[in-house]
Amino acid sequence: MDNRAEIREFLTTRRAKITPEQVGLPPGGGTRRVPGLRREEVAVLAGVSTDWYVRLEKGHIDGVSDDVLDAVARALRLDDAERLHLFNLARAAKPQRANRTRRNPPGLHPSVRRVIDSMSTPAFVRNGRLDVLAINTLGRALYSPIFEDPARPANMARFCFLDPASQIFYPGWADVARSTVAVLRAAAGRDPHDRELTDLVGELATRSDVFRTEWASHNVTLHQHGSKHFRHPLVGLIDVTFDSMPLPADPGLTLTAYSTEPGSPSEEALNLLASWTAVRA
Fold first, then answer.
1. Residues 240-276: pLDDT tens digits?
2. What GO molecular function annotations does the UniProt record carry, in alphabetical order (predicted)?
3. Residues 119 and 92 in one domain
4. Sign of CA pseudo-dihedral 171, 176, 178, 181
5. Tell me, what CATH number does 70's domain have?
6. Is residue 102 one of the residues assigned to a domain?
7. Full-prediction pTM beyond 0.85?
8. What's the CA gap between 18 and 160, in Å, rounded?
9. Residues 142, 227 share a domain
10. How many CA atoms lie within 13 A of 108 on its CB side?
11. Which structural domain range is residue 21 located in?
């Protein structure tokens, strides 16, 4: 992936979302080429020269100080995920990150597998490209439609965009699709030279119009906490809360665990799925 192009497009899409009125600037005359702020308006808000900001938006971000990046983030009203993405893009622009490599996937400590296996709720470990690297028995039962594809590792993004079953499995498929792309976009910002991620993005962009459109939006997310909804083929609707956390000992990997509201129909459905799984074991 072209890091310079990524920086340009990210900053352009962010300023396109903000109107002058939102930041206390007069609307101004003339025809705007984008629906949001002009470059010179962002420069004023960030306290830098227009020429300097234009250069930054062209992708010349290597060596820019954290203070300046913070000023631009405030000017563009970036949220936490977007601000982190901007800093990741700056870090990835350094010369030593210029080589595009295919690397061995990070390993997963056996102790982490034991932890997720001991959990009574669905839990799994994924990498930045949404490969499922480890999952416990209940998690695998919950995500059974994904594992019907014999390809390994199972990939949540490929399932979402390339398998028609995903639109049944996810009642709110459009939201899942947006979130999936935002997770991949954030991962690409951390390392735009990850060849395996680049290959996945290329495959999805080629085969899915929805993915291609969402990818062009440059939205990112931290995806640390929230809710998910499933229509499981055996037990019906299940609503869960998810909590995700990075694994410091396994860089690049994230552990996610699901929980249900006590006494809810979703808890009953998940308990039923657990019982069915235990009978089959």
1. 999 999 998 888 899 999 999 999 999 999 999 999 8
2. DNA binding
3. no
4. negative
5. 1.10.260.40
6. no
7. yes
8. 30
9. yes
10. 19
11. 3-97
